[in-house]
């Protein structure tokens, strides 16, 4: 199904803000969109991170002044070219850097392949992390494709509606 049709379908049952539609459907950098919408630098607060069997699991909150997105990423490090692997691994592990900025820093030509868009029931834990009382929020799951391989899987939950004026 085309992305815009899926978003229109969701919008019938769960009225979406235009900003949410853009974030759900973009095949570009969410970091960049958040910085434009909220007029500031997007920061990452790492909630948890671990490497198991050479796969990096990372859970973060993206914020521009306020928590806006809860994101989980899975990065099989063996799929990243050897000459880039250590640098990217270092960036993922040593600093709170958004994945969009890591991709830009290493000048990787990537694309995003959206796998799922839906409204999701939010756990109490994620509500606390995002500082919201909503029971349901828009979410999407996608892969970052580099040289024909899915090098990352990312799941994002958007809590921007609390901070959109209007």
Task: Please give the largest β-sheet.
Answer: 6 strands, antiparallel
Apparent shape: globular
Low-confidence stretches: none
Order of helices and strands, N to C?
HHHEEEHHEHEE
Question: Biggest sheet, strands in spatial order?
Answer: 1-2-3-6-5-4
Distance between the termini: 31 Å
Strand percent estimate:
35-45%
Count of strand segments? 6
Secondary structure: helix percent: 25-40%
* Average pLDDT score: 88
Cα-based radius of gyration, to the nearest Å: 16 Å
Contiguous helical run count? 6
Decide which structural class fits the backbone. Answer: alpha+beta
Description:
- The protein has a 6-stranded antiparallel sheet with strand order 1-2-3-6-5-4.
- It has helices at 3-13, 18-25, 30-38, 82-94, 99-105, 124-130; strands spanning 43-52, 55-64, 66-76, 110-121, 136-146, 149-158.
- The mean pLDDT is 88.
- The protein contains 6 helices and 6 strands, in the order αααβββααβαββ.
- The longest helix is centred in the middle third of the chain and has 13 residues, at 82-94.
- Strand 1 and strand 2 form a beta hairpin.
- The two termini are 31 Å apart.
- The protein is an alpha+beta fold.
- It is 33% helix and 39% strand.
